């Protein structure tokens, strides 16, 4: 089995799309491998060449989405005192642009989430921010970890709520996130300055 073979890649893509299609209709618990194969138009044997169980396929879908979005969460500056309103706006706009490019997959994963996807989404934001900023990495204190955890949870909460209750369009949601994130970051930066981290 060559994972670089075009047939393998196409079948894998079909399996992922089949799972997302089924998740639009029911929970993962109710989905069977047989159902996935019917939607993907492949045999059970083919499925098992790719994944041991449906949960492996689900985890692959989640990992692909999160890994693809990871770049959007990278800090735009290396030092806290370099953060400006323009940088914060660019950062939140990058996140929402990434959200928009994955909107179908995200909508499905968020609406069927039992809490695990929210946890994974939040962790990837926090870990990416901490690893991407040498200053935060050098001053990895309890307070810094709490601030980054709070911010990651806030961004995740905003995005997840927007998908669950789509009361506005993408540009309006992006504008709202910019305002909220700018105000929250101003408080965090002030506290970090008090602690002497910048």
List the helices and strands and how they pair.
Layout (H helix, E strand, L loop, with lengths): L5 H18 L9 H8 L3 H7 L3 H16 L15 H17 L1 H9 L4 H17 L1 H5 L3 H23 L5 H25 L4
Helix pairs in contact: 1-2, 1-4, 5-10, 7-9, 9-10
Model description:
Keywords: DNA-binding. It comes from Secundilactobacillus pentosiphilus. Residues 9-69 form the HTH tetR-type domain. One of its GO terms (molecular function) is DNA binding. InterPro entries: Homeodomain-like_sf (IPR009057), HTH-type_Tx_Regulator (IPR050624), HTH_TetR (IPR001647). By secondary structure, the protein is mainly alpha-helical. The chain folds into two domains: 6-52, Arc Repressor Mutant, subunit A; 66-194. Helix content is 73%, strand content 0%. The chain is built from ten helices and no strands. It has helices spanning 6-23, 33-40, 44-50, 54-69, 85-101, 103-111, 116-132, 134-138, 142-164, 170-194. α1 crosses α4 (54-69), α5 (85-101) packs across α10 and α7 (116-132) crosses α9 (142-164). The longest helix has 25 residues, at 170-194. It is elongated.
């Amino acid at each position: 089995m060559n994972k670089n073979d075009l047939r393998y890649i196409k079948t894998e893509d079909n399996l992922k799309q089949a799972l997302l299609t089924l998740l639009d209709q029911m929970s993962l618990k109710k989905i069977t491998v047989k159902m996935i194969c019917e939607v993907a138009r492949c045999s059970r044997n083919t499925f098992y060449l790719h994944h041991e169980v449906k949960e492996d396929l689900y985890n692959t879908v989640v990992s692909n989405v999160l890994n693809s979005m990871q770049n959007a969460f990278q800090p735009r500056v290396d030092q806290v005192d370099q953060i400006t309103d323009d940088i914060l706006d660019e950062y939140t706009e990058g996140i929402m642009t990434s959200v928009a490019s994955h909107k179908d997959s995200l909508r499905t994963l968020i609406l069927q989430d039992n809490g695990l996807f929210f946890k994974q989404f939040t962790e990837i934001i926090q870990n990416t921010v901490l690893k991407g900023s040498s200053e935060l990495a050098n001053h990895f204190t309890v307070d810094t970890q709490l601030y980054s955890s709070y911010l990651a949870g806030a961004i995740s909460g905003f995005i997840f709520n927007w998908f669950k209750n789509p009361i506005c369009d993408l540009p309006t949601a992006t504008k709202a996130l910019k305002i909220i994130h700018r105000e929250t970051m101003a408080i965090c930066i002030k506290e970090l300055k008090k602690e002497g981290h910048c």
